[in-house]
Write a structure and sequence with these properties.
Blueprint: E1 3-7, E2 14-15, E3 21-23, H1 28-33, E4 39-41, H2 69-74, E5 81-82, E6 93-99, H3 106-125, E7 134-140, H4 145-159, E8 163-165, H5 170-183, E9 187-188, E10 205-206, H6 213-228, E11 231-237, H7 240-255, E12 259-266, E13 286-289, H8 296-307, E14 313-317, E15 338-341, H9 353-362, E16 369-370, E17 373-377, H10 384-400, H11 407-418, E18 422-423, E19 434-437, E20 442-445, E21 448-453, E22 456-462
Parallel strand pairs: 3-4, 6-7, 6-8, 8-9, 9-10, 11-12, 11-13, 13-14, 14-15
Antiparallel strand pairs: 1-7, 2-5, 15-21, 16-17, 18-19, 19-20, 21-22
Helix pairs in contact: 3-10, 4-5, 6-7, 10-11
Amino acid sequence: MATDNDTDKSPTEADDLPVSRRSVFRSAAALAGAAVAGGVVGRYLGNSQPAAAPAGDDHKPPVQGAKSASAQAAEQVPGRIVKPASGPGERPIKLGFQAHRTGIGAGYGGWYERTTRAAVKVINEIGGIAGRPIELIVEDDGTDPKRGAEVVEKFATQHKVDFAFGTLFSHVVIGSAPRAGELKLPYLVVSEGYHVASGALNRYVFQPGLSDVRSQVTAISSWVMDNLGKKATIIFPDYAFGYNHRDFFGAAVAKLGGTIKALIPIPPTESSFTKYFPKIPSDTELLYHVMVGPGVLTFVREMGEYFGSKRPQIFGFIDSLEGVDMASPGLEFLEGTYFWEGLPRYAGEYPTRGHKFYREKLGLSDSGASVDDAKDVSNNSHMFGCWETLFIIKEIVEQSGYREATPRDREAFIETLENTRWFNEGIEHPQGHKMFIGKTHQSHSQQFISKVVDQKLKVVHRTSIEDSLYEPETDYTKRAL
């Protein structure tokens, strides 16, 4: 198993500016134990474009006000330098990053790791976590559930990390999460499946940096049905992530007065798709697709060859073309079709300060590829979750008073995160405001609907957080720690 133990015990010197702390709702026990002083409520960058927050006293919008530590550091005040305020012998915060370096998830894994390293660099440059540098430990899980559980155990018993994070593919999350619970290791995944929010996992597993499929589908379904058609066929990968789309979009279609004409599951390792397209009923008005894996480009090309100029309206999740250049030969067929995006790939489609800062630190071109290699196209609708999860770990460690990997400190971390309500848009959260639901361990956020125009993605609709909400089906906070 490949191991990359990256230690940065001497972070780059940063501007001599005070590190602010976000005040969050905390449980009485966590609040009593918190050792971090100087709260700033609801940090928010005033020139961001906030998502509409739900109405009502319990859904208060984030407070505008003081700049975050990273925003202050980004201003680069000349001549003011200070090192992190860690005392003699202060140990780093050890973070275990579970990476899909190999296997079906490798295309995502490379950008997840690049994003993680960029966020670690920024955090260490502004003083680390509670004045302590991050030590990043990377292990490849091969996008395999069994290896995923082994990686989690290695993080806990060999590397003795404080927290583990980063997993994307649903089957790996489901295979790894039980071991995290047994080892009582806080495990923050950057997946999309409904497995966390459904209550299927355990109290040590969270998904705070990326919205889940159910909330994404809930948010976009009304617009899709109102604008693209009500007789729908769904093409989806034949495993848990695909089933989430099948079930939740299918339910939304029925609720909105539409009809599911066909459900077409496809093995995620499939390399040719022509045989599946004749299964699409001729009266389909809307073809809804979400595919993943190495064959996505072939999937879209063969779909174009099958339909030609006579096609239904098509709405896809960008998963079907994450990491693929929209101007690739054979994709001309997609002109005028629509996609969900978690965060727009193209510069200028969401020109907030936080998104611009994030893109700069990752080295993203205007088209969403690496500035060093135009063929290396990012997974921008997903990888931001790694960046945001790292800042969430920082925020909750500092609010809970976490010091060591003891049961008491881990419980304080978990309870503080469970009692957090908002993560405010800005440099730490470039995708936008997030409402965190402690019962489900899941964040809800705005979503983007984009149209293919001149082989680029142009945002045509942005949902609100309220659009994505659903009634919780579980309450992790009632489970034992």
